[in-house]
Amino acid sequence: MVVRRHLPAPYQAFCKGRIVRVPKSPLIRVEGTETVIPCNVTDYDGPSEQNFDWEFSRGTGFVRIVSTWDSLFTSQQYQKRVGSGEIVLRRSSNNAVELLIRSIQPFDQGEYKCITPSTDATVQGNYDATVQVKVIADGLTVSGSKARSSKPRQLSEGDSFELRCSASTTSSEHTHLQVTWELKNGPAWQEILSLTHEGKFQPSPEYEERYLSGDVRLDTVANDIYRLSVSQALPMDEGLYRCLVSEWVKDADSSWQKIQEKNVEVASVVIQQTVLDVLIATSNMSVTERDSLDLTCNITTDRSGIFQAQVTWYFSESPDDTLSDAQVLLSVDRDSVVSDSPLISLSHVDRNSYHLLMRDVGVEDSGYYFCQAAVWVPQHNGSWHKVVEKTSSPVSVVVTALELDYQIVLNASKTPKFSDDPTELECRIMNAQNTEANLRFTVSWYYRMRLRSDAVVTDELLATMDADWTLLVGDKSRERTQNGEIIFSKQAVDTFSLRIQWTSEADRGDYYCVVSAWSWHHNNSWVKSKDVTSMSVSVFWATQDYTLTVEAVKLKPFFVAGHTFEMTCKVSSQNIKTPRYSVLITAEKPLMDQSNPHGTTRIISLNQDSVVRLEDWTDQTRVDGVVLEKVQENEFRYRMYQTQMSDAGLYRCVVTAWSPGGGGMWREAVNGLSNPIQIDFQTSGPVFNVSVHSDNPTVYQGELADLLCIVTIDGVALEPDDMSFDVSWFAVHSFVLDRAPVLLASLDRKGIVTQARRNWSSDVSLERISPMEFRLRVHGSEDQDFGNHYCIVTPWVRSATGVWQRQPEVKSKPIFISVKMDVLNALKYPLLIGIGLATIIGLLSCLIGYCSSRWCCKKEVQETRRERRRLMSMEMD
Fold it and tell me: Which interval of the chain is the signal sequence (predicted)?
């Protein structure tokens, strides 16, 4: 037994629980129509699928109709209708069902109750809901304007037609009608245009454009008559038309509900398409260049009444081209207005014939011609509608060209014998026949490289002229043409020239020209009619390898230091046109010379224009001590005054031969190197040695580091006034000599000290403490000052003539200086600072605690007075 409780309304308002919903009352339905009453339940406990019971009442008690879970629930008076399927309870979801009455009758009018058995843990909410159903009589009538004829209506494309439908209702309720016209020309009905129950016109997407243009309309005529008007029939309008009328009523929830629907087939319409034939009267034809082309397009149609034809002529180079690819020649519209063209005319011979005439045709007019015709009919709003369009088959037209005859001769007026000589070629037109006033010639120049093998070489385009005589330069010659090295010109009407100002070996090869003839076309453009190629001309000269010989001669076989060294360089060359020479003097110093560890030094040079330049000569005291001059065209002399001991080495002449190049420039031809000339001073003078010493090579940070550079002499003893030294100190900041040395300080022989720039706080000083000792001091040593330290000494010795001679540099062995950190001194100040700060913070904490306890935390404590009584002695009891 299922307990069903219905809670009072106040309790439902404040307690959340099961809710059963049905539509608001009343539901108005038409007799004989299908009626659906939905019911759903929410906010329930238990299984997701809920059961439903339906009951019916006409004002007395409720009668059970149908249930989802109890097959014996139906009362006897509904068993037949439920068993036959006239009344069905169908489930739409787990918590919703629909009561379906297939044909509702007046005796079905009454109150319907939807009940849900409880599956909740506690009873709360409502477990049933009722809805009132009102059944009204069927008062809707729908009919066509006339009885539908078995014979369809025959219409031509573009005609207008009207269809009428009558719809009315005698319903007791306030209902609205919706009228929809539909068309069936396939398996399904297609909506055309509707007048909705809210009084709005609603076209289907397929007819929206025609509705907006006024071709398809729906309006009312007299009482209850709805007319569909189609002003311009199309093939898509063919088919069966019906009028679909639905009756709508507004439910209690203010929503519109369709209560019934009826339709009537009105007419069958057949649209006959317009037949159009388009034909060009002439078959394939051939005409001669400069003659006229005459074509006629004939059109025939079965269209009667008022219509206009539009004709357009097309030209295409291929018979398979579409209209979008074809060229429009001329057209005449439906108002007989012909488009403008100076050399093409279009005339309307009669109603069905259109004549095309092209004058002065050219070879480029060969191709396929076809015409396109369209038939237009007038519409009710004054506009025109195209009912049919067709294109004729193409007609092939071949224009035979007038034979133009001419010959091309290519001559070389200038040929090179050496590199950088000019080359000039002339391309001339000979024996021109059948030429016209509107004919012009252009030229294209080509180059072909000569190969000794049979390999195929592609011809390279040097330059070409278009029909407007605009020069277009190829990639190979673009830069040289812009620089003026290659010149293309038109010397006469029949003569073109190519000039290479300075011919190089890369220009050797075969050259030829191609002369093109251009004819003026009637469409105001030039059209190429013929190309003639000349014979090739070879540009070539025999070449031999350049040779250059350089001989160096020492003029004074014996000399001593302080004297002048002099040598000459004689040059001879072969196979070089008008050469000029540039000379460079080099010296190869001994490997022990520290001034040039790489071995070779560039001293002085003289270029091909006789401009002298000092190269790597760095001796400022002897800036004018070297001279290089040109004695003859092929002879050069080098002098070095006041030679030093450091000048010892091998001296050579490096000569470059130059030949004239393009644009007044010089081109390098070949290089040559002379034999070496040795400068060797035979002397038994002193030998200098250098060493580095330090009493304390290990220092702490901030201490002073002392290093001594000591010079000693072996052999002949010298007076201190007859010698001086250039001293330089270097450091390599690494444990091994794997980094570049850093200059610390230097002291020249005049006593001038130069310090290098430093990036840390330590400082250096350099001083001479004796004639042969030099001391380097590092003040306030830092970590960066560690590494290998050495000195380089350049001795200077005064000769018997009073001339100071520079001796070879001498380098000492390195000494390693290490810098240590003093841990005690490093920690002394941080430790003192920490102890001081800790003492201050401790005293401050004590002071704060004392003040807080003395003034901030003091409280008044009042003791409760107690009576003092002595205990009575037990003996006195």
Answer: none
**Hey, how many other C-beta atoms are within 10 angstroms of the C-beta on 695?**
7
Handedness of CA 237, 238, 243, 248 (dihedral sign): negative
CA 15 to CA 806: how far, in whole Å? 118
The C-alpha atoms of residue 834 and residue 463 are separated, in whole angstroms, by 90
Helix (H) / strand (E) containing 211:
helix 208-213
* Per-residue pLDDT tens digits for 752-786: 889 888 877 888 999 999 888 999 999 988 888 88
Number of other CB atoms surrounding residue 547 within 10 Å: 13
How is the beta sheet containing 190-195 ordered, strand by strand?
153-156, 256-272, 239-250, 175-184, 190-195, 201-203
CA distance 199 to 194: 9
Q: Helices (DSSP H) in 43-134: which residue ranges?
A: 76-83
Alpha-carbon distance of 421 to 414, in angstroms, equals 9
The beta-strand segments (E) located in 415-508 are 423-433, 439-448, 460-465, 471-473, 486-492, 495-500
- Among 511, 494, 391, smallest CA distance to 445 is for 511
Residues 143, 112: contact at Cβ < 8 Å? no
Please give the mean pLDDT across all residues of the chain.
83
Q: With a cut of 60, say whether residue 563 has pLDDT above it.
A: yes
Residue type, 809: E
For residues 529 and 818, what is the distance between their CA atoms, to the nearest angstrom?
94
Query: Within 13 Å and on the Cβ side, how many CA atoms surround 295?
Result: 28
Structure token pair of residue 216: 């398809």
CB-CB contact of 86 with 103 (8 Å) = yes
Q: Which stretches does DSSP call E strand in 251-391?
A: 256-272, 276-280, 285-288, 293-301, 308-316, 327-332, 344-350, 353-358, 367-378, 384-391
Q: Where is 549: in which H helix or E strand? A: strand 547-554
Nearest-angstrom CA–CA distance, 312 and 162: 35
> What is the tens place of the pLDDT at every residue in 157-195?
878 888 999 998 888 888 899 999 999 988 899 999 999
DSSP, collapsed to helix, strand or coil, labels residue 374 as: strand
Q: Phi/psi at 739 (nearest 5 deg)?
A: -125, 170
- In angstroms, the CA 485 to CA 331 distance is 55
Cis status, amide bond into 26, omega within 30 of 0: yes
Q: Longest Cα pair distance anywhere in the chain, in angstroms?
A: 179
Tokens read off for 261: 């629907």
Instruction: Give CA–CA dist 129/52, Å, rounded.
Output: 11
Judge contact between 150 and 158, C-beta under 8 A: no
The token duo for 621 is 């005291």
Contact 536, 509 (CB under 8 A): no
Pairing of strands 153-156, 256-272: parallel
Nearest Cα residue to 783 out of 745, 731, 733, 738: 733
By the 8 A CB rule, do 404 and 387 touch? Answer: no
Give the Cα separation of 575 and 744 in Å (integer).
Answer: 56
DSSP symbols for 786-802: -EEEEEEEEEEEE-TTS
The gap between the terminal CA atoms of the chain, to the nearest Å, is 91
Question: Pick from 502, 465, 508: which is nearest to 484 by CA?
Answer: 502
470-476, long-range: CB within 8 Å, 24+ apart, which pairs? 476/447
User: Measured at the alpha carbon of residue 517, what is the angle toward residues 461 and 362, in degrees to the nearest 5?
Assistant: 130
Q: Do β-strands 225-230 and 161-169 pair in parallel, antiparallel, or remain unpaired?
A: antiparallel
pTM over 0.70: no
CA distances from 180 to 148, 198, 218, 256, 847 (A): 18, 13, 9, 17, 102
Model confidence at 480: pLDDT above 50:
yes
Q: Residues for the chain: how many in total?
A: 877
726-758 confidence digits (pLDDT tens): 999 999 988 887 888 889 999 998 888 898 888
For 701-751, give the DSSP string: TTS-EEEEEEEEEESS---GGGEEEEEEEEEE-SSSS-S--EEEEEE-TT-
